[in-house]
Amino acid sequence: MLATEKLSVSYGSVRALTDVDLEISGDGLLHGIIGPNGAGKSTLLDAICGRRRPTSGRVRYCGEDITRRSISWRRRQGMARSFQRTSIFQDLTVREQLQLVAQHLGDEGLDDVIETMDLGGYLDQKAGRIAYGVQRRVDVALALIGRPRLLLMDEPGAGLSATETLRLFQHVRDLVRERRIAAVVVEHDVDAVFACCDMVTVLDLGRHLSTGAPEAIRADQRVISAYLGTAA
Amino acid sequence: MTDDLRASTTATFGSLSQRSLAIAVGLIGLCAGAIVPTYLASDFVLRLGSEGLLLGLLALSVAFLMNQAGLVALGAASIYGGAGYLFAIGMSDWGLSPTAALCVAFLILLVYAAMLGALIVRTNPLAFMMLTLAAGEMISHAVLLEGLRDYTGGADGLVVRVNGSVLGIDALRFADPVQFWCIAWIVTVLIGLAFWAIGRSRLGVVLRAIRGNEERMRFSGFNTFLPRLIGYVLVNVAAAIAGFLHVLNAGFVSPESLGLFVSTNTLVAALIGGISGSLGPILGGLIFSFAQDEFGARGLTQLLTGVAIVLFIVVFPRGVVGGLSSLSKRLGWRREGA
User: Fold this and answer.
1) pTM, to two decimals
2) Could you tell me if A7 and A58 are in contact, meaning their C-beta atoms sit under 8 angstroms apart?
3) Which of chain B's residues have a Cβ under 8 Å away from the Cβ of A105?
């Protein structure tokens, strides 16, 4: 479904990503991306979703080269994104913002999204006034509208407790399996990633280090020495 | 089942009768506002009031963009004055009838607004403000160019003589203070209602959502450029209409009508009245117009205007209408969130 080919991104003279090759299957798999701070995880998501233009390399989505396509075009083709820092419409009620996006994307299954993200009790509240954990769920709900085929999530557990993070991951994993879509999750919480993801990619200093099943990654000596350490 | 049917019928007729009542009250208000002042006020007061309405119309255009899109335009005068110049040039230099000159001037302004808007609505709010200021200043200085003097009249401006009718209305009606008040009132109220409706339409919601979080809108599949461009062109339509009414009433157009002074007065009128609806900017225009006359009579226009602006903004940070709305909520006259 998604492939990056020799993807590189630079911020001025600093190379954030260097020649990253990645392949994501769309068959109900949850794909986690981990790595130490500054590994280029968020930059990789930014380059995939069009938020940051790659310095070189290509992004392919469903076989098409989409490297130069706009963010809104990618979204209409089913590539959705949630953010590390919650990105919602603070001045709109939860219902208003979900309906606005659902109408635009022609999604008649909004009730499913509301139920999945357990937002029924917050619909008439201004999004800026609800608890942060609920705001995170609104952020994910906005990404789920329109039945996306590829879900990109940047640190969905940021600001949540370990239990809430694990529950959110389980939600997403169930959704991905039920809808047979793909999700790429960047996350600091390595335990949640190993517990819920079907595949894991490790980045280090902007380079692709390893990709494989969680057990294989745990046992990978390069990953242990670069990131997981002896505690893994 | 029968009860359900009866309840739904009652609700339907209830909402219909409420709507009919609102329309009837609105029409009575529209007619009363057009006619009653003409019996109560002198020609001088009606002139001031008409000027206030036109300033209110301009303020409405600026306030709509501020409130809905979070963009402050400092170039309202270039459209306002430009409408007058193009109308005058259309009749005197291009030999067009008044109606044809008005239509051609309107089209030119529409194209100008769309082209300028396409360049500037993508920028951040500060850059947008500076670019509207720069574009307005370019135009206000262009009319003073010696090479264009034959068309624009240079610093003297142009006298606009309208023979016959404009859009089926006898041009003499625009010069008569009583009849012009009626025309200005009806046009201002209708445009105010149109902007109120647009604010509640899907376009309004989309504009406010873009203002709130443009990136999330793009990540929700929205084109964020087009709604902003449409909003920008719409507010310029209101400014152009104010400009046409001004030139038809005054019978002349001068470089002052294009100047930064008009744009800043417009912004002040919007802030005085309040930017969050249609009533505030129009009321702000009226207050500003009468206050300027009062201050001018004392020979201290600039000084007293400055003091009044500071006082108004300190006492009513959300404008007069916003302040009164908050007060009525506090006193329990209005529901919270109404």
Assistant:
1) 0.84
2) yes
3) 220-221
- CA nearest to B192, candidates B134, B132, B235: B235
Predicted confidence (pLDDT) per residue in B286-323, tens digit: 999 999 999 988 888 889 988 988 888 888 888 888 88
Which domain does B263 fall in, by range? 26-337
For B203, nearest residue in chain A (alpha carbons): A100
Task: Tell the CATH topology of A1-78+150-157+180-232.
Answer: Rossmann fold (3.40.50)
Kindly report, residue by residue over A22-79, the tens digit of the pLDDT.
999 877 899 999 998 889 999 999 999 999 999 999 999 998 999 999 999 999 999 9
Which residues are bridge partners to B169 per DSSP?
B166
- Determine the straight-line distance between the first and last CA of chain A, rounded to whole angstroms: 31
Looking at the 3D structure of chain B, how many domains does it have?
1
Instruction: Compute the average pLDDT of residues A104-116.
Output: 90
The answer to whether A48 contacts chain B (CB < 8 Å) is: no
Closest residue of chain B to A75, computed from CA coordinates: B221
Separation of alpha carbons A207 and B252, rounded Å: 70
**Test the A interface: residue of B201, B219, B223 with most A CBs within 10 Å:** B219
Instruction: Using a CB–CB cutoff of 8 Å, tell me whether A70 touches chain B.
Output: yes
CA–CA min distance B18, chain A (Å) = 25
- Interchain CB contact of A128 with B (< 8 Å): no
* C-beta atoms surrounding B34 within 10 Å: 17
CB distance from A89 to chain B under 8 Å?
yes
Q: What is the CATH number of the domain that holds B233?
A: 1.10.3470
